[in-house]
Amino acid sequence: MTRRNTTLARQLGPVDAAVVVIANVIGVGIFTTPRFVATIVPNSSAILAVWLVGGALAFIGALAYAELAARRPFAGGEYVYLRETFGDVAAFMTGWTSFVAGFSGAIAAGALGLTVYFDRFVPGIANSKGIAVVIIALLAIVHMRGLGPGRVVQIVLTLIKLGALFALVIASFASSGLSIAPAYAEGPVSISAFLFAMVPVMFSYSGWNAATYIAEEVNDPSRNVPLGLGLGTLAVVVLYLSLNALSLRAVPGDVLGSSGVYIFDAVAIVIGFSSLSAMTLAGPRVYFAMARDGVFFSAAGHVHESYRTPAVAIGAQSCWSALLVLSGTFEQLLTYTGFTVILFSGLAVLSLFFVHGRTEDVGTFRAWGFPWAPAMFCLVSFGIVANAIVAAPGTSVVGLAVITGGLPIYWWTRRRQASADHTRGVLAFSYPRDRWFGL
Q1: What pLDDT is recorded for position 251?
Q2: Residue 12 pairs with which residues in a beta bridge?
Q3: Is it the case that residue 188 has pLDDT exceeding 90?
Q4: Strand partners of residue 422
Q5: Distance (Å, whole) CA 19 – CA 34
Q6: Separation CA 103–CA 24 (nearest Å)
Q7: Which pLDDT score is estimated for 425?
Q8: CB neighbours (10 Å) of residue 297?
Q9: Which of 168, 224, 238, 258 makes a 20 to 30 Å CA pair with 231?
Q10: Cα–Cα dist 144/155, whole Å
Q11: Does domain 14-424 have CATH number 1.50.10.10?
Q12: Average pLDDT, whole number, for the chain?
């Protein structure tokens, strides 16, 4: 009887967890999403309100995830929580969506987007698919080779990113003669428009739960994962509100001067690399957990003997991201599945209601404001999803098709794994499998 190495090493602390959150959330879309939101709710007060509500929801969600992670400190994030509460099929669908679009599609889009900013310094490489694939491959190699190199790269990039963005905000508000942004019609904004604007806002905040994906590699996870989630999310909310307030007052080029475009592109490159690095780190932990359960390709559940990383899962995600770059299909996938980020996070927070009163689970952290704060998160999340389906039914139907399209793989890998375990006597990773919801 052979034992497979399927246990990750705990080598990370609360700072690492917070850095992963910040880096996952803040991408180059931070410069474009506010303008898109402004077209949906062309009212300065409503613009700030929608970002404030989104930030509050992200913080509430982070606290709920913190308790879930303290109770189940394993790799995979909401995949683990949905599995324990709603069953394997629901869990697989969130993991499958993460692989097909959520992480891989975002990495493909981010890598190709980086080439546009590089073009300022190396003319002629904008939208170069080859350069984008090289970026994806380099980051995959860094994170395959252990948490040590990966965490150094991640911390350095994130600190530079935060420093540059906060410096931009401070310098802009401190300078005089700021240009006034185009006036918005300060008329009423409908509830439907407000909820619809919440979709890109919540998508911009997505990643506030990133520390839960690496919970299995965090020391003292019942303390450090909640701490990392809280600090990381709070930093992101403050930064987003500051940047949106700035966008209503100033034009970045006027603040930065004649060299502003070069500074802007250099900052965007650092932001992009930091975000891509964090997604390269976090995403594979989901597929690793799925493979360990026998509902994804078994090789993805292996831990590298020397580097102690889910190297195969990292490689699989990077290969799929590269294929999305080369095929140019990532934009459609992200459009179709954007609302699922909100849907699955809402379901994960909903699972907290079935475990909050239990005292036998690992961990001592309890979500603040329970039950009203998590209930509000669920209510708003499901309202946003319902509004998105009503507003764009065609897109939503295709998105649901993408989510359920992986079910044949689920059934095939499950039967194959069950057969292999039975015939070869493989000892897989073991953790509490009692259903929180009894399903």
Answers
A1: 53
A2: 218
A3: no
A4: none
A5: 23
A6: 10
A7: 57
A8: 17
A9: 168
A10: 17
A11: no
A12: 87
Q: Which two tokens stand for residue 1?
A: 């009887």
Half-sphere exposure of 263 (CA within 13 A, CB side): 13
DSSP-assigned letter for residue 354: G
Instruction: Taking residues 281-301, report their average pLDDT.
Output: 95
295, pLDDT greater than 60:
yes
What torsion, rounded to 10 degrees, do the Cα atoms 258, 261, 263, 268 define?
170
> From residue 88, how far is each of 94, 99, 109, 130, 289 by CA, in Å?
10, 16, 30, 38, 12
Q: At which residue do the structure tokens 């599995």 appear?
A: 83
Q: What is the pTM (predicted TM-score) of this model?
A: 0.90
Taking only the tens place, the pLDDT of each residue in 8-33 is 989 999 999 999 999 999 987 887 78
Q: CB within 8 A of 314, min separation 6: which ones? A: 140, 143, 144, 280, 284
Distance CA 223, CA 198 (A): 31
**What is the Cα–Cα distance from 412 to 417, expressed in whole angstroms?**
9
Q: No. of H helices and E strands in the chain? A: 17, 0
**Residues constituting the chain:** 439
Query: 365 or 97: whose pLDDT is higher?
Result: 97
